[in-house]
Amino acid sequence: MDITEERSQTWRADLRSAMKAKERTDIKRVHMPELDATYRSHSRLEEVNLGLTAEMAIQEAKRCIDCASPTCMLGCPVGVYIPKFVKQIEIGDFLGAAKTLKETSALPAVCGRVCPQEKQCEAQCIHVKMKKEAVAIGHLERFAADFERESGNISIPEVAPSNGLKIAVVGSGPAGLSFAGDMAKRGYKVIVFEALHEIGGVLKYGIPEFRLPNNIVDVEIENLRSMGVEFINNCIIGKTITIEDLKEDGFVGVFVGSGAGLPRFMNIKGENLVGVMSSNEYLTRVNLMDAASPDSDTPVLLGKDVAIIGGGNTAMDSVRTARRLGADRAMIVYRRSEEEMPARLEEVKHAKEEGIEFMTLRNPIEFIGNEQGRVTHMVLQVMELGEPDASGRRSPIEVPGRTETVEVDEVVVSVGVSPNPLIPQSVIGLEVTKWGTVVVDETTMQSAIPMIFAGGDIVRGGATVILAMGDGRKAAAAMHEWILNQ
Amino acid sequence: MNRIVSKEFFSENVIKFEVEAPLIAKSRKAGHFVMVRVGEKGERIPLTIADADLQKGTITLVIQKMGVSSSKICALNEGDFITDLVGPLGKATHIENFGTVICACGGVGTAPMLPIVAALKKAGNKVISVIAARTKDLIILEDQMREFSDELIVMTDDGSYGNKGLVTNGVEQVINREKVDLCVTIGPAIMMKFVSLLTKKYEVPTLASLNTIMVDGTGMCGACRVSVGGKTKFVCVDGPEFNAHEVDFDEMLMRLGGYKEIEREDMAKMECASGAVK
Ligand SMILES: Cc1cc2nc3c(=O)[nH]c(=O)nc-3n(C[C@H](O)[C@H](O)[C@H](O)COP(=O)(O)OP(=O)(O)OC[C@H]3O[C@@H](n4cnc5c(N)ncnc54)[C@H](O)[C@@H]3O)c2cc1C
Ligand SMILES: Cc1cc2nc3c(=O)[nH]c(=O)nc-3n(C[C@H](O)[C@H](O)[C@H](O)COP(=O)(O)OP(=O)(O)OC[C@H]3O[C@@H](n4cnc5c(N)ncnc54)[C@H](O)[C@@H]3O)c2cc1C
Ligand code: SF4
Ligand code: SF4
Ligand code: FES
Question: I need a labelling partner for A279 at 20 to 30 A (CA). Which of A49, A61, A312, B115 fits?
Fold first, then answer.
């Protein structure tokens, strides 16, 4: 059934005529209940957003006018069938809504929480064109997925009978997980190899629990296990075993979802002082190694005056973590203005409520340390905005002679990551760009080596969960096709 | 996976383990290391692969008790399992026939040196090994080192065994005696710093295997970074061996001290806890 046919089904038509469009658009957007800001700025593990109640979700679903050409779907990188699942929520068919979501998204509970909706689906909602607040698609997506999980009635997708073919997945981030699920459905034996001791990629070691609880990711991983997907941790493809070994072992296809794991630094004076670290190090210590718990053997420095350099999601996660670990002053230092910040709007709002200081139009040029080599100060260059650059954002330029020196005892550098070089370095014949990303055919995600497909941050060089997941799905469909044609 | 098949004490605080890890045993080369974690709350720490047995599918680790994590591993026994073990990591040592090579090691640095000495010897080098320790009891792997070395010089700080003096005294003695083409050094950072200063004076090319603090060991975090020739390098992926004359050892020493206070507290806590059990 295509979208138009579905839309003309009686239940949908009845629902539309039950309430005038004007009435629907007049309803005010739901407000996500959240933990009190003062309380949560000291609570490291509790999720900030509490989720909608069923009543709230139904009320919010009513706001959607079930457009004939739903522009919201154009904003979603995987084309989630938005009006359908929203209308299913409106009639109280929450499990049905979850099922609809799963037709296109492998991880709806995750995407509902971390997608930059205001730039994607919600940005294209008709409400925005009418100068009203968009339908809270992300909140509703989370609601349906959470409802299904909590109901204990998770629908495990049907798995085709085994076709006896083995497929290897490199990396267990969202790209690898969604690929694995789709191939398992098609009857392949899928084995996921993960370098770390935990499965989940950035969802585990990067994004903190106050934004994405680990158990949500674990449930998804369990679902994949029950579909027959096998996970092998502590195994680095290219080191422990090579792609050649996999081939010899009878694997007929390999999907590389190895992510963008290489932190960038700024190469400025004092950057190697004690107390200056990458956000990957900081978040890995706290999230993956649980370093802030007294019973963890991994240490983490607890700063009182902590500066985070950068304006993306990683920076927001780091600064809010620092605050939760007891920083009196937790600061964002960003070289452009707030308007240009790449972080999700919600993270910026939450950070502000939690007492994070925003020092925008500031760029660090030096870190100063004491005799023990511990950082004590940062020197900031004051910036102003110039003409828009290639990315369309106004580029920051230095204000000559204006610098500030600020006391800090910990600095987290969060100025971006580069693709993980392990696979590109260890596979001969793989085509790689000068940025180190793997070159693939955009429609099939196939690399220069036919049996190797790739997706997610290793191809995009740093993107989003939903894009990584979409790549995984695209690659699965294309690899299946490719194998059939062999 | 990762079952300990044998445990042997080199000294009270230096222990040799053979661990089942068939895939790593197959793919490892001299100079590689593994990341090891013991217990669900354990820390990931780097340990050099001192040897491997392809038939048995095992690798050999030699561990010195330092703080919490190394002590936890040392407390394991034959038949126990290591929670997580991943590798081989780092770049393998570049081996060729250089001519005459001094291998200068201190303390537990002898363990990671052993496979390098063996590989250098196999490649046709004249290998002169200098092993040093504070006192006689801390000298490890003497026989094994002797087997692959053309000459073995033992140095102890207190003169309780071999020659009295530091590792640098032993190295200088050789350099003054004959032409040396390469020096490889592994040991405490402070020792490597002084070996490096010495060989720089005599213009002997030198490789140092750096033992910085690590978290993931795969190039993801940057905790292991050091300045080499004025550029920031990640020891776990760009190393662990570097041109010693370009390494900023003072910065490395400073960074090694970064978690000292927290580690001391943790160690005290662990000792208290084990005291309570006794
Ligand atoms: C702190 C932080 C916050 C973020 N917040 C958001 C957000 O709010 N919304 C959003 O949409 N996006 C966010 N992102 C970005 C998003 O997480 C990534 O785009 C996404 O995770 C990429 O997925 P991936 O599957 O490509 O790779 P990853 O999630 O990076 O997973 C790759 C995995 O592969 C493993 N691996 C690498 N090499 C090998 C190898 N050789 N062998 C075996 N395993 C290997 C790695 O250990 C890792 O587990 C955030 C990122 C970070 C770091
Ligand atoms: C590539 C590499 C290979 C290594 N190979 C071996 C090996 O084969 N055998 C072995 O015994 N050790 C080896 N080490 C060192 C080992 O990893 C550390 O001794 C260990 O991490 C200490 O952990 P801990 O919790 O027991 O002690 P901690 O409590 O972390 O530290 C105790 C004391 O040791 C210092 N310290 C911490 N980390 C290091 C370090 N990496 N090197 C030197 N001093 C440190 C601390 O400042 C502190 O004073 C290697 C290190 C690297 C980087
Ligand atoms: S997956 Fe993300 S972009 Fe797509 S509908 Fe859901 S929240 Fe919006
Ligand atoms: S654009 Fe907005 S109102 Fe229209 S279908 Fe999508 S969510 Fe509903
Ligand atoms: S240990 Fe993390 S990058 Fe080297």
Answer: A49
How many structural domains comprise chain B? Answer: 2
Range list of β-strands (E), chain B: 4-11, 14-20, 33-37, 45-48, 51-53, 58-64, 84-89, 100-106, 126-133, 151-156, 163-164, 182-186, 206-209, 225-228, 231-234, 241-243
Selection from A82, A100, A90 nearest residue A14 by Cα? A90
B200 alpha carbon, distance to own chain's centre = 22
How, if at all, do strands B100-106 and B45-48 pair? Answer: unpaired
Measured distance CA(A86)–CA(A92) in Å, rounded: 10
Answer yes or no: is B161 within a domain. Answer: yes
Residue B273 is assigned to a structural domain of this protein: no
B contact set with A (CB within 8 A) = 23-24, 27, 37, 39, 41-44, 68-69, 72, 83-89, 215-216, 218-223, 225-227, 232, 237, 251, 254-255, 257-259, 262-263, 266
**CATH code (residue B77):** 2.40.30.10
User: From the CA of A418, how far away is ligand 1's center (Å)?
Assistant: 11
The boundaries of the domain holding residue B83 are: 2-89
| DSSP state string for A236-278 | -BTTTB-HHHHHHTTEEEEEE-----EE-----BTTTSBTEEE
* Residue B272: pLDDT over 70: no
- ipTM, two decimals: 0.92
Q: Which residues pair with A276 in a beta bridge?
A: A411
Q: Whose CA is nearest to atom 8 of ligand 1?
A: A114
Number of domains making up chain A: 3
Q: Tens digit of pLDDT for each residue in B29-82?
A: 989 999 999 999 999 999 999 999 999 999 999 998 888 999 999 999 999 999
Q: What share of chain A is helix, strand, coil (3-state, %, to 5)?
A: 40, 20, 40
Burial A328-340 (b: 16+ CB within 10 A, else e): ebbbbbbbbbeeb
For residue A218 the two structure tokens come to 């674990």
Residue of B nearest to A417 (CA): B220
A44 within a domain of the structure (yes/no): yes
Domain that includes residue A142, residue range: 3-151
Of B88, B215, B219, the CB nearest to A284: B215
| A334 backbone dihedrals φ, ψ, rounded to 5° | -135, 135
Could you tell me if B131 and B68 lie in one domain? no
Q: Phi and psi for A247 in degrees, rounded to 5?
A: -60, -45
Q: Is B112 in the pocket of ligand 2 (CB under 6 A)?
A: yes
Per-residue pLDDT tens for A112-142? Answer: 999 999 999 999 999 999 999 999 999 999 9
With beta carbons under 8 A apart, name residues in chain B contacting A195: 86, 218
Whole-number pLDDT of residue B222: 95
Distance between CA atoms of residues A382 and A228, nearest Å = 55
A112 and A79 in a common domain? yes
**CA of residue A339 relative to chain centroid, distance:** 21
pTM of the model: 0.93
